[in-house]
Design goal:
This protein has 316 residues and is of the alpha/beta class. It contains 8 helices and 10 strands. It is globular, with a radius of gyration of 23 Å.
Amino acid sequence: MEVKKISGQAPQALPQATPKKETTQESLFGDIKTKKVTDPRAFKALKGEKTETLKQYGYYVVDKNNNGIYDEGDELHKQITVMLDAGHGSGKHLQQGQKFSIPGQKEPYVTVKNDTLESIAKKHNVDLAKLQKANAAAKASRDPGAIPPKSIGTHDEAYLTGLARSELREILEQKGFKVIDNVRTDRANLKDRQRVKLNAKPNMFISLHCDSSDKSNASGETVLYNPAASKDKKFAEAVNKELQSDTTIKNRAMQKRENLCVLKGDQNDDIAEILVEMGFLSNKADYDNLNNKESRKKQLDAIAKGVENYSKKEIK
C-alpha cells in the first residue's frame, strides 16, 4: 500500500478503534479516523478485522491501485452510492423463433414470447446448466429504444446509453463514489429495475436515455424528475445546472414527470432520482455529439459534477 506522509513524518500504526454507542449500528468499527497506512498489519488494530471487512462495511481503503480516497482530514468515509440505469438493451427473455436443443430430446424446441432459459428448463424438466451449455449461442430479446433515421446513423438508444453508463461509472468511481449498475432489461421488466433499485437503496439514481422526434430540428438534453419527491427536484437542479455550463448540446432545462416507472416507488423519499435524456437521435447534430467520445465525455463530466455537488450539500 502507498502512503502520503503528513508533516514529513512516517505514518503511525492505527490505534485500536473504540466503538461509540451511537455509531455501533452503522459500523462495527465506530467513529474511525485514521491516516493512510502502508503496513497491512495496522488494519488489525480495527478489532482484528481485515481490509476486506472495511470494504464490506462501505469504507474507503486507500491503496496503490487507487481503490479508495481520503479527504484533507485524512478520514476514512462511508461511501456514497450511485445507481446507474442504462435505458433499454438486452433482457432476460429470449428472441422468439429460435431452435433450442433440449438435452435428451431429438426434436428441437422453438422459442415463443416470454421464454427464458429458466422457463424452458422447467417446462422440459432439464438441468438449467446443461440447457445453457447446449444453447450457448442463444440470443436474448433486445429493446433498441429510439432508433435514428437511416440517413443519420445506425447506433440506437440502447447502444449509446450502454456506452454512457460505462463511461459515467468510471468518472464517478474516480471521484470516490460507489457505483451500482441496474439490470439491463427490456420494457417488460421495468418493474424489475424498480425492485433492484429499492433493494439496493442507493443514495442517488440516474437513468440514462436518448430522445427522438418526428421533427428533425428537435434537439437537446433534458433532466426529468418526479415533483412528488423533494430530493428528486434538488438532485435535478444540481445536475441540470452543470449541464447548462456545457454548451455542446442544447439544454432543454428540467421537466416534471410524475408517471415515469423508473422514478416511482421510493415512498420514503430516501433516494434522489432523475432521468437524463441525453439528446435526440433524430437530430443529426445531437446524434453526432452522442457518438463522439470527447463531446459525450463533456456531458457525462457535467452530470458527475452535479452528482458531486448534490452529495456535498444534501447527503450527510
